[in-house]
Amino acid sequence: MRCSNPGGGPWLSSSQQRTRAAYLRVQLRMNYEINRQLQRDNELSLADFHVLCALSIAPNRKLQISDLAAVICWERSRLSHHLRRLCDRGLTERLQSEVDARATNVVLTEEGMSAIMAAAPGHARLVRRLFFDPVPDELLSPFTAALEHIQASLNSNSSLPPG
Q1: CA-based, 20 to 30 A from 137: which of 33, 43, 84, 128?
Q2: Bridge partners, residue 62, by sequence
Q3: Cα separation of 16 and 103, whole Å?
Q4: CATH code reported for the domain at 44-125
Q5: Phi and psi for 112 in degrees, rounded to 5?
Q6: How many whole angstroms separate alpha carbon 11 and alpha carbon 79?
Q7: Would you list the domain boundaries of the chain?
């Protein structure tokens, strides 16, 4: 999106436009390539991978739905629909919380853990090749710092709970 910035008004500067466009191209293309690889090699979508990965590193491989939604930055309704499909495939289970009867926990099944373990090596190879290999070592630390600053701002200024 190219808009002029007359007098520093509400428009993005040229360098901001360039950065935003580059970020969007990378983010969209990475998601496409990762989704394609996961589906081809493991019959998982990128969305499946996000959910299963978050559960795989959670204590006891279990999270409340609201906490899982915050971790993966999804709305609860989207997550609920997706969990129904994952449960139907035997990758996750829904259980009533032992602590709060009003809450529902999501648990990664053994089949779900096997799926994420099988997908992880190919996923890591692809991410390394497409995302990390092109970045010179001296740019990785400042790039990471910039992303962490953006994440902190999003946690403070967005409509989703901090992730």
Answers
A1: 33
A2: 107
A3: 42
A4: 1.10.10.10
A5: -65, -40
A6: 34
A7: 44-125
